Request: fold
Amino acid sequence: MNHAAFQQCINPACRATYGIDEVRVSCAKCDSLLDILYDWTKLPVPKNLSYFEHRWSTKGTGVTGRLDFSGVWRFREMLPFYNSEDDIVTIGEGRTVLQQADLLGRQLGMKPGNLLLQYEGLNPSGSFKDNGMTAAFTHAKMVGAKKVACASTGNTSASLAVFAAFAEMKGVVFIGTGKISFGKLSQALDYGALTIQIKGDFDACLRRIRHIAVDMPELGIYLMNSVNPFRLEGQKSIMFRILEARDWQSPDWIVVPGGNLGNCSAFGKAFAELKELGLIKKIPRLAVINASGANTLNTLYNQYNLRWNDGNFDPTTIQRLYAGMDEANYHPNTVASAIEISRPVNLPKALRALHVMDGVVREVTDDEILEHRAMVARWGFGCEPASGASVAGMHKLMEEGVIGRDETVVCILTGHELKDPNVTVKYHTGVDMKTVQDMAPREEPHGKLSNKPVAVEDDLEAILKAIGA
Ligand SMILES: *Cc1c(COP(=O)(O)O)cnc(C)c1O
Ligand SMILES: [Zn+2]
Reply:
């Protein structure tokens, strides 16, 4: 048993703690989110970040070679929640690239060397989600889970499905009738997850799966959404790799699209810990970019001035906004399907990250997303629409003068270009192949490994029947 790691409620008025082997997605006392924390005094903390470079020569060899090969676990001293290295479930995630994007930078009026693109679409399942899944599956294995589930706009399900297959667990993914791209859906089906489409949007799916996983423990379903604090531990490694690629120097800015706000929250935690441990001097600033069609964070941060305020942020502001959405029967709507989320579960942690990293929030329109996504493809390696939001947001912040022309900026490209080819083809040809809104099979599929999706109403009994519970 690992005695140097524990879970703690993020609410400063509560701070309840839980053992690392407990399965929780919120505090039992006050329902706030949980952090994974460490007693660093009991752990072998590297004296400087260049310590990690020795793993470049040991990747793939010896007992820890599989860990040194992973872009997440070669930094394992920074996420030491596991009991033993045998617990770690890895598929070689996080072997991604930081590209100095001078050609794109020139289009945006930037000097050579100032724009950098972090291609997280180069992960095994094609999005940054693999960084988090490897950590959450490691925890699932530690606690003996056999069934894992998530609600998804697409990439979480693709990532869960491939990890579940490798870990020999049963994967269940819930997707809504909002947009999901063919690329992502095809992965969940191909990797063998039970895929259930509920008549409702992402937020409805998440409410359902949360209820089923948390309130019905007898079903033994382990929740893999980013309310799971272990996911965020793995996602910290995106920042470690950026530092590594820059000889351990922080850039001036990190720009990231915001959906459920797990990624930006993980970045804030990574830098807070590195600073606390004296491993970096400077914390970069953070820009979180919403799509205008799913702009909850931007509205709360810039219109209602909601701030972390040492954990004493005002929840009534959020409740009022959500009540207004319900009243207007509002559903988020953006071409960037991966960030089509109106009730981001990690909102408090995102506020904390914005505080730690002196952050800003912006929203960008679908047209801005499409144009900047196309620019990344034309002058870089390409990305999916949601990732284009980070470049669009950076462009906007530079025109506003918030990001200086002399500053170095890393835009996180969260997903691979081929995740959503329909958007690309439509952009170039005007032909709309549509995303998948209703995937109930029209005829019996014939393949030996055909894995039929199941379409059900947004109804608990129907959903439990579909899961086989
Ligand atoms: C999940 C996802 C996002 C949003 O990340 P959050 O952590 O939910 O804010 C952005 N882009 C892509 C491609 C994603 O898959
Ligand atoms: Zn609490």
In short: The mean pLDDT is 94.
